[in-house]
Amino acid sequence: MQAKADIRKEVLQRRNQLTAKELESKSFAIYDQLKLLDIYKQASVIYVYMDFKNEVITKHMIEDALCDGKKVAIPKIIDDIMDFYYIDDIENLKSGYFGIREPDPIMLAKEKNSLMIIPGVAFDKKGHRIGYGKGFYDRFLHQHEQFKKVALAFELQVLDTIPHETHDVLMDRIITEERIIIVNSTMK
Ligand SMILES: Nc1nc2c(c(=O)[nH]1)N(C=O)[C@@H](CNc1ccc(C(=O)N[C@@H](CCC(=O)O)C(=O)O)cc1)CN2
Ligand SMILES: Nc1ncnc2c1ncn2[C@@H]1O[C@H](COP(=O)(O)OP(=O)(O)OP(=O)(O)O)[C@@H](O)[C@H]1O
């Protein structure tokens, strides 16, 4: 099996080759599927990343969610710890960690069992995830076990199997532009 670092490099290289048009259309297809899920429709709060580089675009989701009256919480890294803060306007995000747009750390989000929309570099069908290698999501999710974890990824990011460790937290669903991978069928 390939080492995590090799997989990260290879998948990022492939994801970087997507054109702006492909990014848009695939991201819309993913958002369209997410919108149909009961867990999304019923969520009054969503924890979601602000897309950067060639991640699945979340901008429209954030704008729609705020418009629909959902509370939206976005991650920010402070002293090497990731936490989530509510935002009321996407325009108020500021360039932070590695240039990712982050919220002002004013309203700390403290939900325990909300829906979390998770980014990543590579996934496998069993719900394993490789991120940028800093373990931010793993650590956060270990401390917040009750979140419903829905990952967004392009099909090119889903591999048959990826190396995993005991501290890895599994995704419940992975949505790509082609399918929804159900890892945890008991999640409602
Ligand atoms: N949109 C988004 N926000 C997020 C995350 C994420 O994956 N996506 N995170 C999830 O943890 C946290 C930030 N984690 C990060 C960890 C490392 C690097 C980083 O090293 N970036 C370098 C190298 C990338 C590469 O390997 O090519 C860079 O961007 O130059 C960036 C973000 C919190 N916010
Ligand atoms: N629950 C945890 N507690 C303590 N350290 C952890 C935990 N999870 C991950 N780490 C550490 O964080 C580092 C990166 O972990 P890993 O390679 O799993 O990150 P990743 O999932 O690719 O990245 P990220 O979550 O930032 O997107 C490793 O050194 C790992 O030991």
TrEMBL record:
Its EC number is 6.3.3.2. It is an enzyme of class 6 (ligase). It catalyses: (6S)-5-formyl-5,6,7,8-tetrahydrofolate + ATP = (6R)-5,10-methenyltetrahydrofolate + ADP + phosphate. One of its GO terms (biological process) is folic acid-containing compound biosynthetic process. The keyword ATP-binding applies. InterPro entries: FTHF_cligase (IPR002698), FTHF_cligase-like_sf (IPR024185), NagB/RpiA_transferase-like (IPR037171). Keywords: ATP-binding, Ligase, Magnesium, Metal-binding, Nucleotide-binding. Substrate binds at M50, E55. GO terms for molecular function: 5-formyltetrahydrofolate cyclo-ligase activity; ATP binding; metal ion binding. ATP binds at K4, A5, D6, I7, R8, R129, I130, G131, Y132, G133, K134, G135, F136, Y137. SUPFAM superfamilies: NagB/RpiA/CoA transferase-like. Its cofactor is Mg(2+). Belongs to the 5-formyltetrahydrofolate cyclo-ligase family. NCBIfam families: MTHFS_bact. This is 5-formyltetrahydrofolate cyclo-ligase. The lineage of its organism: Bacteria, Bacillati, Bacillota, Clostridia, Lachnospirales.
